[in-house]
Amino acid sequence: MGGPKKQTPEQIAAFEKHCKPRQWKKGQSGNPSGRHPNTFRKELNQILKEVGAEKIRDSRFDGKVFKTRLEVLVRMAYKEAQKGSFQYWNAIMERIGGKPIARHEITGPDAGPIVIVRPGDGGDEDTADGDSSAPEAG
Hints:
This protein is of the alpha+beta class. It has a domain at 40-97. It contains four helices and four strands. It has a two-stranded antiparallel sheet with strand order 1-2. It is flat.
């Protein structure tokens, strides 16, 4: 078994002829002033706001009155929630009060502390909260 194969001068010349040298330094962006993140989301939000604010004539609610598209959608969602649609009820409640916080408790076996055993430590166990079964050296 030999070491790494050496390239001939002809191979090096062919590589340099067909391949561009590194254009960018390591970690440097090739498009520093390119499209910013969330551009699509910002544009979509702007369009939704504009369309939602458009006035429309809607005879389904309180007679023939001009309303915004957004108001019509909100009123429709409330009516569907009143009919018993959990999907609409859930959407309305999340907009009013925010999504409920999911809380998780992580414990070890039998609801005790999490035990971390490192291989090669001779069986010493440390708990996640920093307690050690071995006495501290003074």
